[in-house]
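User:
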Amino acid sequence: MPTLQETATRRATAARAAHKPRRVRKRASWWQPVVVFGIFVGLWYAVAAYYDQKVQLPYLVPYPHLVLMSIIHDTRPDGEPTGFNAELWASLGRTTLVSLVGLAVAIVLGVLWATVMAQAKGLEKALYPYAVVLQCVPILALVPLIGALFGYAFLSRVIVTVMIALFPMVSNTLFGLHSADRAQRELFELQGAGRLTRLLKLHLPAALPSIFVGLRTSAGLSVIGAIVGDQFFQRGNPGLGVLIQVTASRLMGPELYATIIIASLYGIAVFLVFGLIGRLAVGRWFDFT
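Assistant: Predicted structure:
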């Protein structure tokens, strides 16, 4: 027979379970963004009608359905569709290639740079200021030099992308390498673990959440870098940056808005994809947001 203490413990456990609040199922919240999007489209139509009928400059704010048509179809000057808009999607492919290559280079350089700095305080003090300088230097000021040294085609676009996307990888990786638990560091030192062992088995695993935060940030910046580099170096195969400038100079309002929307959606997609990769990689033991 159970003792009085066991009986009391069971009753207390049952009482806590009975008073435990039930999880309230959250209501679906998909309709709020849909409502906001509908309001935004309505306002867009109103502004477009004002610029079309009052200002007589319809290319400044084209109607949303014309922009959507320009995303799918190429159009004649009178606005009639002529076929699939191959130029827009080909430009998106070139920008995607530049941004992904630049992002890959930025990841490798950023992790290596931060790893070297994390080995000693002297190395960090000597090298980190140059990472800050690289982040703060105006890219426009270096464009003539980059073009003269590396040409005005694919390589120069990648270099601009790397320069824009590199700093988040360096700073976040360095922060993560320094965030290893102090007790674990002391344990590794007591066990006589070498520098390489501590790096591979302690510091890098502890730095993974920060590395993926930097990766997500650099992924979004790589898209900006690819478009900016494309606008600066207008030779070779054009990307979205050149297409934006061409459509703006020719007063092609729907095509300009379509290119900007595609560039924005691509940047959002890259950011979300790498955020998902980060959650899948470290979400099991770290609250990755």
